[in-house]
């Protein structure tokens, strides 16, 4: 459960955070902390929280005194503007009786809870714990089962893109699903707390967004993964990447979606209709950590024995566009870049299908990550010299991301 704790008093913050982490063990809590309104707004732009525990008397920014209604002002802005992710529930928490009295009516009007904090008593913690348990029960699937049944689902378009992952030391086993022609592989690992950590992998029946969306939806419903990753290869921008660099796509979109016009008209022959899908702030943070791990990237480079560039691969975060056909025309890449996103890093054929299908899955909804490695530059010199290396770097970055997820 995602919780945002907004509190400027260091002593009170330590008491509340320690109580949540030690005394509420029934529910796994992911707690972020903000000490002023600006910091809280940044977090609420990037992430959706099940619960915000909000100090009512709060400074609006760093290095200023708290305002008696600072928390209320923050709450009004977050709930009133669309670019913030509204939390599912809010609990106001104040140690000041006069602030409690002045804020009670507004909290009651919006059906939020307001709790009086007392360091000498744990009544406040009991109320928060009951609310957390209630939210956790609402987060369960309609049939009462746990939210997720699989930790990571990995999909690839082709077998050679998946093989480097299946060749690692995770003891992959075939996993049959009755009535499903797809071939699934399963690895049963353990996390840092010695709890089971399940990874399932599969390849598409054919290339393309339709096949990617179909498998993602089918496997998503069957396995209920917490995270869906796509690995494989793409064409990159030669000014931004070298062969084997791994592009983590965000935003991702279908560059062929739009409207074609009669070429005799004054309008451009094609007007794109771009609907972008982005990864979560949690996944972006994970990728940023991996991208700075030089030992990891050097190790990936050194462990590959085939044809490869001289330099270790990089992890690049940015725009990735999907289309219906293989592109071997540099001008086409430049056209998409100039007309749809000037910072476009790569193009390929499946990522948008995976990410769109993932966000349309029924409860529980997974987070997504597409990590595709550059094998060519979408030009006439397109060949397969670096394809095995690109398949390898993509799979190894995904494996590192999975290790990060199971050890945090």
Describe this structure in words.
The protein has 408 residues and is α/β, with parallel strands linked by helices. It folds into two domains: 138 residues, Response regulator (Rossmann fold, 3-Layer(aba) Sandwich); 257 residues, Nucleoside phosphorylase domain (Rossmann fold), CATH 3.40.50.1580. Helices cover 37% and strands 24% of the residues. It has twelve helices and 16 strands. The chain has a five-stranded parallel β-sheet with strand order 2-1-3-4-5, with helices on both faces. A five-stranded mixed barrel has the order 10-15-14-11-16, surrounded by four helices. Strands 12-13 form a two-stranded antiparallel ribbon. Helix 10 links the parallel strand 14 and strand 15. Helix 2 packs parallel to helix 3. The protein starts with a strand and ends with a helix. The relative contact order is 0.12.
